[in-house]
Amino acid sequence: MEQSSATKSLKAVFKHQAKDFFFITLGISMYAFGFTAFILPEKVVMGGVAGLSALIFYAFKIPPALSIWVINVSLLLIAFRALSRQFTLRTIIGVTLLSLIIGAMQPFFEHYPVITAGEDKFMHVLIGGVLCGGALGIVFSHNGSTGGTDIIMAILNKYFRMSFGRAMQFIDITIISSSYLLFHSTELIVYGIVFTLFASYVCDYIINGTRQTVQFIIISKEYERIANTINQDVHRGVTLIEGKGWYSKSDVNILIVMARKYESQDVFNYIKMIDPEALVSQMQCHGVFGKGFDNFK
Q1: What is the signed CA dihedral for 100, 101, 102, 107, rounded to 10 degrees?
Q2: Residue 190 in contact with residue 114, Cβ under 8 Å?
Q3: What's the whole-model pTM score?
Q4: Rounded distance between C-alpha atoms, residue 93 and residue 30, angstroms
Q5: What is the pLDDT of residues 136-183, one digit of tens each?
Q6: Measured between alpha carbons, how far is 138 from 132 in angstroms, rounded to an integer?
Q7: For the purposes of burial, counting CB atoms within 10 Å of the CB of 270, is it exposed (0-12), middle (13-18) or buried (19 or more)?
Q8: Which residues on adjacent β-strands are paired with residue 242?
Q9: Residue 101 in contact with residue 30, Cβ under 8 Å?
């Protein structure tokens, strides 16, 4: 019986890891496509190691696939003590996979370009930003890593006590601004900043979009009817807290409800129908983990 339970547990772990590996591979492939098909041909330098590798490619014609791998592995060796073993292993796998796919795609798109000269460069940057940002969101959502900025931030945070946000801004702005030394164009710097901001937004949206939940705090004399209705019709749990109104000095019953964003309108409609005078507070949550919501990663 114990062996059967252990076997099932092992299968579940293997299935979960296989699923993660599939989506990490998909995300890295998307990133490689956006990078090689839309960003490299336009000579746009973005932030991170990919931007630095693009800058090296434009200046010295060293393939980005090679420089991405070399830079990331070098950073991993420097920051080895600041990183966990699992993060290091996943980063090596992700970086190696990214380098291989970029190395395969770049010659292909040089011979069969997706974009042609004279087309809208800004649109190409936006498309590249959507693909790369969405790809990173998929990779991060499934416990993957493409290295780059993550490693540099760990180094700066450990040795210089710089916050992650400031470290990321400092690194990206430095790399993007460096393109001026090569191209003497402020326009390309603007494109690089637009790409980085847009990719960051899409990445955050992918990571947090599926986890968008709403928390309701409801104060009403009809709390029992509201709680029962939400339980039965919305199929969401309700927590009852006993409190006291400081102004009125009277006892009040407070309901706390966690629901998906798309369920919020139903919750509002039921509250309005039962007690139009109820006091309702709604707050946006980036994620709720546990039974009925997202699993812990």
Answers
A1: 100
A2: no
A3: 0.74
A4: 16
A5: 889 887 878 887 766 766 666 566 655 555 666 777 888 999 999 999
A6: 10
A7: middle
A8: 253
A9: no
